[in-house]
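Following up on my earlier thread - several people asked me to post the actual chain instead of describing it. Fair enough. Here it is, all 440 residues.
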Amino acid sequence: MHLGALVHFAPAPADAAAPPVDLLELLATRAAAIPRLRMRVRDVLLPVGGAAWFPDPDFDVHRHVRELRLPGGDFDAETARVAGELMEQPLERGRPPWEMYLLTGPDDGSFAVLVKLHHALADGMRAVAIGAGIFDEIAAARTPPARPRRPRTRPAPPALPGARGLMDLARARLEELGRAVGVGASVVLASRLDQRGATALAAHSSGTRTVATVTVDLERVRDVRRVAGGTANDVLLATVAGGLRRWLAERGESPPAADPRALVPVSRRRPGAPPGSGNRFSAYLLDLPLSTADPAARLRAVRTAMDRNKAAGPLRGAGALAVLADQLPPLAHRFGAPLAGGAARMLFDLLVTNVPLPRSALSLGGRPLRALFPMAPLARGQSLAVAMSPYGGDVHIGLVADGAAVPDLDLLAAALAEELDTLVRATGSTGAEGTVDKGR
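Reply from S.P.:
Thanks for posting it. Predicted structure:
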């Protein structure tokens, strides 16, 4: 359940007057300055079964930040291969659960950074906030920690709440219980006991990982949205559906009898709110219309389903299973989480998420950010996860798959790029051809 990003940087501009930078040391220094990355998980006595985040007294950033020199050849393809191998390896619980790798190799000065952290440390939105701390622009704007102030003396609160406090507490617990029961009932109703989806999506987990990336033109996505309506994310979801259909046809497979179901995460963080601790997300469930042959009709089906999900809200339906973590006591959560994780296969077939990035230009050591491919976690029993991030006029798509179940992930990456071309033509959009990185 670790997630991450593969971040590519261009060489320093030819007219840059900045002196050479030790990128590994710069990366380590900036990572060490992010407080969240110095925290590790420890069990606590109370509440029973609980755990909490504590500063790691033995923290050494050089245990987490390493450099790997890659062989010559296609640097982008080589970084994707290495990223798959590194994403296979579990993170140690006894340390802060994250790693960063500086990937170097070519003579032209290009390099990449692989960021890998456990989902317990951050959800997608918070992972962006944490990872952005390595960039020049974010690090320069970071405010130094405030000086600790002497606490003011305040009267101690009463040992027991009054009658009104007891009523409010009981009402809150009943509301939480009702929400938990409602989500649980939705989970039962949404569960399908039959093995649905394509053969690759129904395969058992092997523990291996493979990574592929593709870049599509954001303006072409917006052109389709302007013609067909909906949102840019609707267009991207329809592109994923059509890409899967195209990929299965290339594999000689017919569309599955039941359309595969995607888990589409929804952040519940308020804009501008402090990160806080833990995860703040829910999700929608979306049946990807692979059985629909017409690309424009697929987009309409996706738009209709997402509009229905949004009208119901992110706290209803089986996709809100993650919300239960907020409602259950620690002991129940500790025993229930493995069961919920094992049941993921009955609820959805793949994860498809859109991870927003800062709109401003970013760099590391004066080297401009060229592309950032997010990598979503694979739940137990899942073979494929798709993550997308718009940045700099492009949408960077990161694919993470079980290596044994999906050995041809590069073909799926190419199918996604081709599907957007088809969707542009099917809707009569006028967007120019985009630059794609097929099969990385």
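The chain has twelve helices and 14 strands. That should answer part of your original question.
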